[in-house]
Amino acid sequence: MKSMDLLIGQVIRFDGDPFRDGPGAARHHGHGAVAVEGGRIVDVGEAALLRPRYPQARVHDHGQRLISAGFIDAHVHYPQTAIIASWGKRLIDWLNSYTFPEEMRFSDPAYAMEIANRYLDLVLARGTTTVCTYATIHPTSVDAIFTAARARGMRLFAGKTCMDRNAPEGLRDTARSAYDDSKALLRKWHGVDRLSYVITPRFSPTSTPEQLAALGALWREYPDCLMQTHLSEQTDEIAWVRDLFPQARDYLDTYESQGLLREGALYGHAIHLTERERARLIEAGASLIHCPTSNTFIGSGLFDMTLAQHLRVGLATDTGGGSNFSMLPTMAAAYEVAQLRGQSLHPAQLWWLATQGSARALHAEDRIGNLAPGMEADLVVIDLASTPAIEQATRRAEDLWQQLFPTIMMGDDRAIAEVWVNGHRRAP
Ligand code: GUN
Ligand code: ZN
């Protein structure tokens, strides 16, 4: 017989989308419980109801701590783990000075494995149970992150980064090899355990139209895969794209014209969009991934959160362009970026973005990102008074949001009391 675990504490779950339905889309149980069996959530509700319903369950009583779906980081570059928080550059300089030299080191499979393990340990300790990551151009860097995720039972999305121009010798593939290597990796890993392959052209400046076309063709062969890339992050980058693709209507058109725009496309950043781009992204049902700490750190601009009313928006750290591995400061930065645009975000919206919103952006909302019967048991238990500064700020809290917001704004890995992956306790 399978053994059952019953986690007791405050519980947050979502019945709807707080961008459409308001904060009432979140459901809060002040004394709730989550029943977990065989890697799945089997029941969620009031502790007073669930305790007698499952008398044989192993009980984990977390008191006032908050039980939530694990965080989902929808856009990261795990190979940039060791260069996070590198000082003083804007995008193109930053790529050339820090990113490309570091990504070069992933030609060594042992180094790739070391960083993949280090990265997943860092994010699990911060309550992130799923990421969608770029690897490097080296196929072994994809093997490394999938192997590390599989060993931890994680649901994880990753793909080989493809670049056939404007990158240094040693970090370039070709249209042909990008297609062949991506296809071989996809066939090797896609659907194995909880792993999904993502077709990954880095961005238009580092791919020829021929490479984008080859990856568009691959995507037509494997339409249930996701495709990830970058779009309109900095104004210099957009001007560069204009020079490189003189025939394109705009940045999005460089993807669209090669079969790289439809449902299942994930565009990181998407800050400086034209009216045509916004309309086409909405019409096509694309996902946008907001990376607020990266956008302030690299100085890119302020994402327009009103887009979340029209299409799937996920939240992400963009490690290592982002300045943190944790989704808590990422939610804080999303709040601040929205403030600067006069778009105040409710804590329910922030929490939703870091869980269900990212799951929806990855088309995985039927499996992860929420607490409901049948969902995979990826959970985080949050200490809402993890530091003296946070504890004193919650003393007069009158509802969950007032209790939670100081942790969103000031919390870090100390707030992560427990993490469960696929029904097993993993960290810290
Ligand atoms: N655009 C293309 N590559 C990258 C990257 O690695 N990080 C960020 N922030 N933007 C990019
Ligand atoms: Zn990125």
TrEMBL record:
Catalytic activity, EC: 3.5.4.3
Signal peptide: none
SUPFAM superfamilies listed in its UniProt record: Composite domain of metallo-dependent hydrolases (SSF51338), Metallo-dependent hydrolases (SSF51556)
Cofactor binding, note field: Binds 1 zinc ion per subunit.
Domain Amidohydrolase-related: 67-424
Cofactor(s) for this UniProt protein: Zn(2+)
Coiled-coil ranges (or none): none
Function: Catalyzes the hydrolytic deamination of guanine, producing xanthine and ammonia.
Name assigned to this protein: Guanine deaminase
Organism: Rhodobacter calidifons
Gene behind the chain: guaD
